[in-house]
Design goal:
single chain; alpha/beta; seven-stranded mixed beta sheet; six-stranded mixed beta sheet; globular
């Protein structure tokens, strides 16, 4: 399904990384990739979950946590957004929680002036265990409890984005609670094990059932802590078609959100209007 000409469009980019235990190294990588996306015309860019730190142990992020509005991670993100004159959805960073031994896994959004304008704390915390793998985010992360919406205006057009993070993807009721948006933004660090079987299926399902774009930014490779992430950052249209995909490694994908495409899909198959519950 082609993009109509003379429509209201927004150029977006999804950054993919293979983050390390070195905070400054990761911020430098993020800055370089965002600059490349901006040079390609991106008006909004998304970083992956844990982009700033993939520690050697889970408690490393607790040591790196910041208070909201203060700290070197937030200061550099603000500068990156300002320098590149774009909206920056800054993956997730560790923020102070009520429990001193935990963090909030938080998406912060910065506008082209470098101002922090929106925040979402990850609600659903990942737990997974096999004979060889174990993940239990609740041991070091405190869950959020408020859904996140980002509203921006670019060139006179208003855009609404639903904010969710990684494991949230498995909970369709969250996306229904967010209501009708133009695009769902999903920073993630899906494991290789779960990603190869479920990642694309879940992303396309969220796009189709919500008749919205989905822009997913992923970690994609083998990390120094021996964790392997699935990658496959994607842009998916409201009909469920994958418009762009980066299978593995660092880099970025880009594409266009189109108001005419949203209207086309929602008018010919008005499933959102047909809801009964």
């Amino acid at each position: 399904m082609s993009t109509p000409v003379n429509s209201s469009n927004l150029k977006v980019a999804s950054i993919q990384m293979v983050s390390t235990p070195n905070l400054q190294e990761n911020l430098s990588t993020a800055s370089r990739l965002i600059a490349a996306a901006a040079a390609d015309g991106a008006q909004l860019a998304v970083l992956p979950e844990y982009f700033c730190l993939m520690g050697l142990k889970d408690t490393d992020k607790v040591s790196a946590r910041e208070s909201i509005g203060s700290g070197p991670i937030q200061e550099q993100l603000s500068q990156i957004a300002k320098q590149n004159k774009l909206h920056l959805v800054a993956g997730t960073i560790p923020l102070e929680a009520r429990d001193p031994n935990k963090v909030l896994n938080t998406t912060l959004v910065f506008d082209p002036a470098g101002q922090q304008i929106t925040r979402y704390d990850k609600i659903h915390l990942f737990g997974f265990q096999t004979a060889t793998e174990r993940y239990q985010e609740s041991e070091t992360i405190e869950a959020g409890n408020e859904p996140g919406i980002l509203n921006i205006s670019v060139d006179g057009n208003n855009w609404a984005f639903g904010l969710s993070i990684c494991y949230d993807l498995r909970f369709p009721e969250l996306y229904r609670a967010l209501g009708q948006v133009d695009c769902h933004i999903i920073p993630a660090a899906f494991t290789y094990t779960t990603g190869k079987d479920h990642w694309e299926i879940l992303l396309r399902a969220r796009a189709i059932e919500n008749q919205s774009y989905v822009l997913a930014s992923a970690q994609g490779g083998k990390h120094q802590n021996q964790r392997r992430t699935w990658g496959n950052s994607m842009l998916i249209d409201p009909w469920g078609e994958v418009l762009a995909n980066l299978p593995e490694g660092e880099g970025f994908i880009s594409g266009v959100l189109c108001k005419d495409k949203l209207n086309e899909v929602r008018s010919k198959l008005p499933a959102l209007a047909h809801r009964k519950l």
